[in-house]
Amino acid sequence: MPMQTLTGTRLRERRQALGLRQSDLAERAGISGSYLNLIEHNRRRIAPDLLARLAGVLGLDMAAFEGSAAGALVEELRAAAAGVPGGGAELDRVEDFAGRFPGWAATLAALHSRAEGLGRAVEALNDRMSHDPHLSASLHEVLSAVSSVRSTAAILADTEDIEPEWRERFHRNLHEDSERLAAGAEALVAYLDAGGQAEEQVIASPQEEVEAWAAAEDWALETAPEGLASGAARALAAAMLARARADRMALPDPAFSQAVQELGPDPAALAARFGVEVLAVFRRLTLRPGAAAGLVICDGSGTLTLRKPLAGFALPRFGAACPLWPLFTALARPVTPIEAVIETPGPQGRRFRARAFCLPRHPGGFRGPELREAAMLILPEPPGAETALPVGSTCRICPRADCAARREPSILTV
Questions:
Q1: Which of 71, 139, 145, 176 could pair covalently with 181 via S-S, beta carbons 3.0-4.6 A apart?
Q2: Do residues 22 and 110 both lie within one domain?
Q3: What is the dihedral of CA 165, 170, 174, 176, to 10 degrees?
Q4: Per the domain annotation, does 211 fall within a domain?
C-alpha cells in the first residue's frame, strides 16, 4: 500500500483534534516519541502494520491512507488551497479537477511546492547576506589593521630624527599590526570560502555549532559532544549539558511526564509542583527527544542565546527578531507570565501558542547589575476563534506592510 505524501500531517492533525499528546500516541502504538515526531513531519516512511496501529488508536479508516499518485496529487492540491485563505477553491471538487485535468493539477502542485522552497531559500539567503555580523566584523578588522600599518609606516618613512626608543616602539607596533592583518585576512578568506558550501553546512558562530550538534542529537543533551571545531563551542556545549543534567535532576522522569499529563504544558503550574524556576520547566518541556515544541531564549539585550526551531515558525539566524514576539514583552515585565496566540505571515501562515517568562538575577547582590533571561515556549495551535497576534521572523523578510513595529522595508514587498 503506497503511503501518501502527507500521511504524517494527517496523523498529526487527527491527534491534535483529539487532544492526544504525542507521547501518549507513541506509547499506545509501541514506538518512541522521537520516531513518531519524524513520522508526523513526513520525514520517515511508515510501515503498513505501524500505520494500521496508529490509525486504530486515532479512530481513522485505513481507506483514507490507501492512495496512488493521484491520491497524493489531491493532497498536494488541498495543501495549496489551504495556503491561500479566502481563495475560493472548491475543495469538494478537487478530485474531479485532478481527474479531468491531471496535467494542470500537477503543474499547480509543482508551483505550490516551488513557491514554498523559494520562500525558505529567501529567508536563508537574506539572513546570511543582510544580517551577517561576522562578515562585517572581519572586514572591519582587516581595514583597521591596514590603516594602522599605513599610519605607522608613514611616520617611519617621513620622520628622520626619531629617537631610538620611539623607533623601537613603532617597529613593534608595525610588527603586531602586520600579524593582526595577516590573521584577519586569513579568517576572512576562510569564511568566504565556506560560503560556497551548502547552507546547512555553514556554521558561522559557536552558538550555531552547538545548536547544530544538539539538533543532530534530537536535543537529548546527555553525552559530551564530539567533533566541535572551536573551543568556544565546546565551552557552550559543556554549559548546556550541565544545565540539562541539573534540570533532569530537579524534574525527573517519569514524575515530570506524569505531571505534564495532569497539568498540561503549563510552565507556572509545573514549576509550582516541583518547586523549581519557571525557566527550568521551559527547558525540560522542549530540550528532549521528540518534543513537539520550540524554544527561544534571550538575554537582557534581546540577543537570542538559544534557538530550538519548530516547523512553520522561522527563527532569524543572526538576531534582529520580530519585536512583537511575547518573548520581548516578558523581557520588559520580569516574573510576569505572558501568553498569546500568534500567527506567522503569508499565505502559509500558521498559528502557535506562545508562553513567555523573564527571570531577573542579581549575582552581585543589591549593588551589582540586574541580569535578565527570558524564554518563549512555542506550541502548535489548531485553528480557532481566539484572536491571534500577527508576528513575523524579522522585518527584512516579513511581508506585513502595515506593521507598526516595522524597522525597515521588507524585500518581499514592493
A1: 145
A2: yes
A3: 60
A4: yes
- Residues 412 and 327 placed together within one structural domain of the fold: yes
- Does this model's pTM top 0.90? no
Last residue of one domain, picked from the residues 95, 127, 159: 127
Q: Would residue 1 count as lying in a domain?
A: no
Which among 234, 377, 231 has a CA at the least distance from the CA of 296? 377
Same domain membership, residue 226 and residue 159 = no
Q: Does residue 30 belong to any structural domain of this protein?
A: yes
Determine the Cα–Cα distance for residues 343 and 392; give it in Å rounded to an integer.
8
State yes or no: cis peptide before 254, omega within 30 of 0.
Answer: yes
Total tally of structural domains belonging to the chain: 4
Instruction: Report the C-alpha gap between 196 and 199 in whole angstroms.
Output: 8
Helix (H, G, I), strand (E, B) or coil at 16: helix
CATH number, residue 123:
1.10.260.40
Given a contact cutoff of 8 angstroms between Cβ atoms, the answer to whether 5 and 42 are in contact is yes
Could you read off the pLDDT of 201-255 as tens digits, one per residue? Answer: 444 578 888 998 898 889 999 888 877 877 888 999 999 999 999 999 999 999 9
What CA–CA distances, in Å, run from 320 to 23, 87, 277, 312? 34, 32, 28, 18
Query: Based on the domain organization, do 13 and 109 belong to the same domain?
Result: yes
Shared-domain flag, residues 13 and 119: yes
| Containing structural domain, residue 341 | 292-414
pLDDT per residue as tens digits for the range 169-205: 888 888 888 888 887 777 666 666 555 443 444 445 7
Q: Which of 237, 262, 285 is the last residue of a domain?
A: 285
Three-state secondary-structure class, residue 380: strand
Q: Other C-beta atoms within 10 Å of 392: how many?
A: 27
Assign 215 to helix, strand or coil.
Answer: helix
Q: What is the dihedral of CA 168, 169, 172, 174, to 10 degrees?
A: -110
Give CA separation, 249 vs 221, 261, 274, 284, in Å.
13, 19, 11, 11
Angle at 140 between CA 137 and CA 144, to 5 degrees: 140
- Tell me the three cell numbers of residue 37: 515526531
